[in-house]
Amino acid sequence: MNYEAMVKLFGCCIPVCKTQNNEIRYLTDTIHDWMEIICYAEKFGFTSLLYGKIKEFDISLPAEAELMCQIIVKRHYLSNEAKMRVLEKITMAFQENSIQSIALKGAALANVLYPNLSDRPMADLDVLISQSMTAKVSAIMKEMGFSCVTNANSYHSCAHLPTLQIKQDGFPVNVEIHQFLCQDTSSHPWLTLDDLQYPTQQFMLFDRCPVSYLFHEEMLFHLCWHAFYDHRSFQPLNYLWISDILNYAEKFKEQINWDVIRRDFSIVINSLSVLNGFVPLSENLISKLGFDTSCRYHHAGSESFGWPMIPISEFRRRGFLKTLKRTLFPSDWWLYLHYGKNGQTSIYPYWQNHITDLFAESRERIQLRIRKNFGHFLRIPHG
To answer: Which partner for 66 in 28, 61, 263, 293 could form a disulfide, CB atoms 3.0-4.6 Å apart?
Structure first.
């Protein structure tokens, strides 16, 4: 797989990007393993945006790849429609019981940001409630027929209740009821519904159900925090989340109070500054942000490519020294993006943070392995 061409193509397929016809055609001409590209894109739910941009420029795909994209886009549409039906039921039930709730991330963005419902797939519905309403909400969800998902990923479970699931139109729909908006790199949750500084906004679901979502400034902050800062940065780069951030900033740039962003949410400015090295922002948005565009980054749009994303067992096949180097010395673009600063500051402190996080990740994995293999003998509880 031509990884470099794929990354550039993904950047061109973020809708905000004013892609030139010859640029995207050149990139698609260099790609021959389309099924592998589509499978990689679908890890992040990016296939709909990829396929939409390819169709916009009337570019032909191999028949097998074309069919695969069509199936994925249709599935995203039907799955999202089922999720929106569930969101409507939840919102109406909460409103009937005087419970304030806020739709987060994809649940809101699929309705207010993207032109097609299939453009913003989501693994689950995220809804924020007040901590004081936890017991009441749990009882309501049980009455509605939701059940706990025993095999749900619990890595971030400190920020939300156990994942709940219900069947809708043949699709299993997972719902995460959050008590906190964010968590730090040590998985400590913070920022509750009652801590929000600004009033919520609303969109109409199916033209009959008003659903609340975060105000512009807090929405952008939450998108940036969730994408890059609320967990250690050892995860594949999610191009759909990058699309969320860039497109939201561009679409609502005239409504966003950028003075508030600069004062209260500086990570938004820094994130947009670094992302501009991957997908160029509009001149109008850059003027509002007021950052220096002269910074140049190495390997913009690429991920770390080291451990733990690549298991140690793979080092030899990929080249031990090369993979070790990528583990210890990722690109400056990646470091700035994941540690909340931009190219106007020294990279050294963020490299130190990266090394510290590597050691912390190693320690946690060793402890987990000990608990898993020897916890019964040592009487160490799991988790």
So the answer is: 61
